[in-house]
User: What shape does this take?
Amino acid sequence: MRKRTYSLFLQEKIAGYGFLAPTVVVLAAVVAFPLIYSLIASFYSYTFVSPGFNLFVGLENYINALNDSYFWNSLLVTLSFVIAVVSIEFILGFIIALMLNRDIKFKSIYYTILTIPMLLSPVAVGLVWKMLLHPDLGVVNYFLSLFGIGPINWLGSPKGAFWSVLFVDIWQQISFMILLLLAGLVSLPKEPYEAATIDGANEWQKLFFITIPLMKPVIIVTLLIRTIFAFRTYDLIYVMTRGGPGVSTEVLSYFIYRKTFMGLNFAEAAATSYVLLVVVFVLVFVMFKFMEEEK
Amino acid sequence: MMNRNFKIYLGVGLMALYCLFPIYFLVLYSFEPSEAAYHSPPVFYPIAFTFSNYTGVFKSIPLARYALNSIIVATSATFLTLLFGSMAAYGVSVLKFRGRDLFLNSLILLGFFPAATMIFPIYKMFSDINLLNNYLALILPYTVGGLPLTTWVMATYFENIPKDLLDAASVDGLSIGGTYAKIMIPLSLPALSTVAILDFIAFWNEFIYALTFMPDSNMRTVTVGISLISGRFTYQYPWGQIIAAALMVTIPLVIMVFVAQEKIISGLTAGAVKG
Assistant: This one.
C-alpha cells in the first residue's frame, strides 16, 4: 500500500512537471536567450557601430546608465504616468461601476459603448486623438473656444503633452477597469446589505463598511493588472509624442527603445534594462508582500 | 429617489459620451474626404459623404493580406497561450510544490518587463536563426507576452475548483491528464474565454514587435499596415483612409466581444473575484 501511494505521488510529480514544461520551454527559448545575451552585453562595449564582445568594460555601462539624467527623467515620467493613470482610472472606474451595478435601463448598451475604446488599436487611437487635439483645427480646442478657453497647445507643450497622453490612455483603458470592478460588484453576496439596511445603515456606510472590504481582492487584482499594462505603455507614446516635446513624455520603454535604436548603444540600453528590472523587482516584491498581508 | 436615479443616469451618460465622442468623429471622418480633417471650424456632421476612403485603402495597402497575417498570428498565439497557460496553471496546482509562489511571481515579474528592452536581443536571435518574416517571429513572442497573466488568472481559477471533484475523479481512475482535459478545461470555460478575448485583442493590436520582426512588406500585420499608410505628398496626410482602415480592422473584435459579452462578465467574475 505504501509503495502504491509512493508511485502515485511520483507519477503526480512527473505529470505536474510535464504540464509546466511547454511554458518553461517557450519562456526559455524566447526570453532566456535575450535576457542572458543582454546581460552579457551590458558588461561589454557593445554598440551597433562596433558590435560584438570584444571589449570588456565591467560596470561602466551601469555607471553611465545611472549617471544619465534622461534615465532619471524617464523613471520619474513613468512613475508619475503609472500612478496617475492607475489612480484616476480606479477612482473614476469604481464610481461608474457602482452606478452600473444599480438597477438601470439599457445596461447592455452601456457595456457595448464602454468596450469599444478598449478594442481599437493604440496606434489608431493615438493617430485619431492627435487629430482631435490639433491646436488649430482640432475638435477639442474648438469646443473649448466656445467657452472662451484656449487655444491649448495640447501636444506641443511639455505639460500639455503629458496630460494629453494621460487623458487618451484613460479614455482607452478605463473600460477594462470598469468591467473588472463591475464583475466583482455583481458577485458580492446580498445578505450583508440586507442586514445593514435593517440596522439602518446609510449608503455611504454600506459602501465603506461592506462594499470596499468585500471588494478588496478584486481591487488588488485590478490594480495589479492595470499597473503592469500602464508600466509597459509604449505604442501610444510612440504614435502621439515620440517621448516629446523634449523628454516630457519619455516613459522608460520609449527611453530604452531610443537608446538602443537611435543612440545605437545597445550595451548601455541593456544595462538600463537591468537597472529597471531591479526597480520592477522591488516594486513587485512590495506589492506581493502587501497582498499577502491583505490575505 | 428620482433625484438619485437622475444623478446615476447623468454620470453614466457622461461617461458614455466621453467614450463615444471620438468614435463619432472617427466614423464621420471615415466617410468624408481627407480634407475634412483640415476644416476650420471642424466638420461636425456629414457634408460630402463618400465611400472613397474605404475603397481607397485597398489600393494604398494590401489590407486583405495584412488581415490574413494578423488573423494567423493572433489566433495561433492565443491558442498557444491558452494551452500552455492552462497547462502550467494545472501543473502548479497538481504539484503544490514549494516553488509555486516563486514560479507565479516570477511570471508576474516577467509581465512587467517592458517589451522595448527585449526587441533588439530577440531581433538578433531571430535573424541569426532566420526566423524574421516568419509567422513564428510574432507567434512566439506574443505567446510569451500573454503567458504571465493567463497562467496567473488560470491558476487562481483552478484553485477555486472544489477539491471533492478532483478526488472523485481520481477515485474514478481518471489520470492526471484526463482530469485536466475532462474536468479542469470544461469547468474553466468562462475564464478561458475571457482570457482568450483579452489576449486576442492584445495580439491583434500589438505594434512594436510586429513592426520590427516582420520587415517584409507582405508580412505586416494590420496595425503596422495602418500606421504606414501615407499620402503621395507629405502635406496630404490621408486621414480618411487611415481612419477607415482602423475601423474596418476593429469590426471583427467588436463582433467577437459583442457575441461573448455575457461570458466575459461571468468569466471575469469567477477569475478575478476569488483571486
About this structure: The domain at 68-294 of chain A is CATH 1.10.3720.10 (MetI-like fold). Chain A has a mean pLDDT of 83.
